[in-house]
Specification:
It catalyses: 7-phospho-2-dehydro-3-deoxy-D-arabino-heptonate = 3-dehydroquinate + phosphate. By secondary structure, the protein is α/β, with parallel strands linked by helices. It has 13 helices and 11 strands.
């Protein structure tokens, strides 16, 4: 079963192709895009060990000249040093304007490869082959690329749309359970902000906490509906001028938690889960969302094996202060995405500091 979703943009429309066995078709699909012959595959050692051979064989069979580089996985490696290694490989292999960088990995590899391709020779082709659930449903779509600054996440970045996103659900079989759950956090996000039917389907599922327990039909539905939600939002607002900001649901406090724990205590999906619980509670406190809906959200987060409380030892004041360096700050005010019903959310900068502190204190006890 194949799903093909169009991301329709004024200048750089592309497709998200979802099907088992897609990895072996990478070369053929890239050939159909009329790309130049030179390709640099960027991956991490673990993913490359599992899937590098299949990807490279497919590219070579289609006539591409293929070079490769592997970089350590993990948010703490999303730095200028890693970026420099991609640039060095691009130079060594004489990548040209018509050449392509292929990101074979999770969100960190995708973000760094995307930023390298956006800036090498002022922009070359880029293809996303996400290998984590989180990257499949979120990070690989929409053209956001970047690296971290020591003071905050993704502060250095660019919008650079991929030529294609190629998703093969088969690669999820080697994904660690904790990483699978991290991806489910982003899927729950889509249910809350955009797709009430997706939310209901997950509520009806007995299990959400690991791939082995998940119905294959539901997995395809999760991938298709999540990608469609992201594509819909990005198509309406490519550069985050308005609507696209709702995709940051759970990310405002989530990013602060990640940053303050130096990306070592919680992963991105776990941080988003904590952020969604906080945002939901803020919305309830401000009488924008009803308590039952908030409880349904939190029950789904718990069913996915995700945290609903702050990591121990985090200073509440430090979290509130960290919000001021968030990318979403506008005119000095922190912007929150808050749900108004399951399937809809708004962006507001009218969240009093004392409400944020009160909610965070409740979540740390």
């Amino acid at each position: 079963m194949e799903s093909v979703i169009g991301v329709n943009l004024p200048q750089e429309s592309y497709e998200i192709a979802i099907a088992s066995g897609n990895l072996a078709k990478l070369g053929d699909r890239m050939m159909s895009l009329n790309l130049g012959k030179k390709v640099l595959v960027v991956s991490n050692p673990v993913i490359f060990q599992y899937y590098g051979e299949v990807a490279i064989a497919s590219l070579k069979e289609a006539g591409f000249e293929v070079a490769q580089i592997t970089l350590p996985a993990g948010e703490s490696y999303k730095t200028h040093d890693s970026l420099q290694k991609i640039y060095d490989a691009a130079l060594e292999n004489r990548l040209e304007r018509s050449s392509t960088m292929v990101a074979l990995g999770g969100g960190v590899i995708g973000d760094m490869t995307g930023f390298a391709s956006a800036t090498w020779l002022r922009g070359i082709n880029f293809v996303q082959v996400p290998t984590t659930l989180l990257a499949m449903v979120d990070a690989s779509i929409g053209g956001k690329t970047g690296v971290n600054h020591p003071q905050g996440k993704n502060l250095i970045g660019a919008f650079h749309q991929p030529r294609e996103v190629l998703i093969d659900p088969e690669v999820l079989k080697t994904l660690p359970v904790r990483e699978f759950r991290a991806g489910i956090a982003e899927v729950i996000k889509y249910g809350i902000i955009w797709d009430a039917e997706l939310f209901s389907q997950m509520e009806r599922s007995q299990y959400l906490d690991c791939l082995d327990n998940l119905d294959l039909g539901l997995l395809q539905e999760i991938l298709t509906r999540s990608c469609q939600a992201k594509a819909d939002v990005v198509s309406k607002d490519e550069k985050e001028a308005g609507l696209r900001a709702i995709l940051n649901y759970g990310h405002t406090i989530g990013h602060a938690v990640e940053s303050l724990t130096e990306y070592r205590v919680v992963n991105h999906g776990e941080a988003v889960a904590i952020g969604m619980v906080a945002a939901g509670e803020i919305a309830v406190t401000l009488q924008m969302w009803d308590k039952l809906a908030s409880e349904r959200q939190n029950a789904l987060i718990q069913k996915a094996g995700l945290p609903t409380a702050l990591p121990p030892g985090l200073d509440i004041e430090a979290i509130v202060d960290a919000l001021s360096t968030d990318k979403k700050v506008k005119a000095g005010k922190v912007r929150f995405v808050l749900p108004t019903q399951i399937g809809a959310a708004i962006v507001t900068d009218q969240v009093p500091r004392d409400v944020i502190k009160q909610v965070l204190q409740q979540m740390s006890s």
